[in-house]
Structure formats: structure tokens, C-alpha cells
């Protein structure tokens, strides 16, 4: 069996927006009780962006389903999923899956 080691690098750019009326200090304190010790919206933005880059458009534990470009994602069809949409968090897609490079080595 022939094997190949593949290293994939990609660049994604997002703008993560928060409704500060909802995502405030009280919200962060409650979030810290169950999830991560994030004390700023920039820490939340970093986590949401890396999650999006790794797993694509999906439910994010602790956040629900963020809006995409100000809209409910197209794949949200069921009433159960619609209840999981978090209208206080929006991910603007600047670029995704662009500038991908793959290096391949024969093992």
C-alpha cells in the first residue's frame, strides 16, 4: 500500500459580530460556568472563528447556531434547529477555502 503525507494550509477570513445587549458581562459569566474561561468578546470571536474554520457551518456548543452574513444559515430547516439559532452572533464570511496549498510527500 502506498502512503502519502499531506500537509494542508488554508486561509479563511471572518468578521465575528456580537450584539452587546445580549453578549455582555452577565452572559460571559454564565458562559464561564459551563464552558471556557473567556473574559472578552475577542476571546469568544477567536473560538468561534477557529471552530468555523475547522468544522464549517454548524451548531457550536455554548453558542448555538450563529447567523451567517446576517441571515439564518440555509441548512437550518427544522423547527428544532430554528430554535438553536443565536441571533446575537453573526459570522460575516470574508473569504473561505481560498488560498489553499497542499504539500505531498511519499512515505
Largest sheet: 3 strands, mixed
The number of strands is 3
**Between the first and last Cα atoms, what is the distance in angstroms?**
10 Å
The helix/strand order is EHHEHE
**What number of structural domains do the residues give?**
1
Proportion in β-strands:
35-45%
Mean of residue pLDDT values: 94
Question: What's the helical proportion of residues?
Answer: 25-40%
**Number of helical segments?**
3
Query: Which class of secondary structure composition applies to the elements?
Result: alpha+beta
The shape is elongated
How much is the radius of gyration in Å? 17 Å
Strand order of the largest sheet: 1-3-2
**Low-confidence spans: pLDDT under 50, at least 5 residues?**
none
Amino acid at each position: 500500500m502506498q502512503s502519502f503525507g499531506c500537509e494542508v494550509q488554508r486561509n479563511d477570513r471572518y468578521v465575528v459580530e456580537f450584539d452587546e445587549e445580549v453578549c455582555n458581562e452577565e452572559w460571559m459569566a454564565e458562559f464561564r460556568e459551563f464552558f471556557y474561561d473567556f473574559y472578552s468578546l475577542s476571546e469568544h470571536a477567536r473560538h468561534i472563528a477557529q471552530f468555523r474554520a475547522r468544522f464549517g457551518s454548524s451548531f457550536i456548543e455554548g453558542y448555538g447556531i450563529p447567523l451567517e452574513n446576517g441571515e439564518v444559515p440555509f441548512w437550518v430547516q427544522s423547527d428544532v434547529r430554528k430554535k438553536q439559532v443565536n441571533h446575537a452572533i453573526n459570522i460575516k464570511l470574508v473569504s473561505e477555502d481560498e488560498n489553499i496549498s497542499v504539500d505531498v510527500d511519499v512515505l
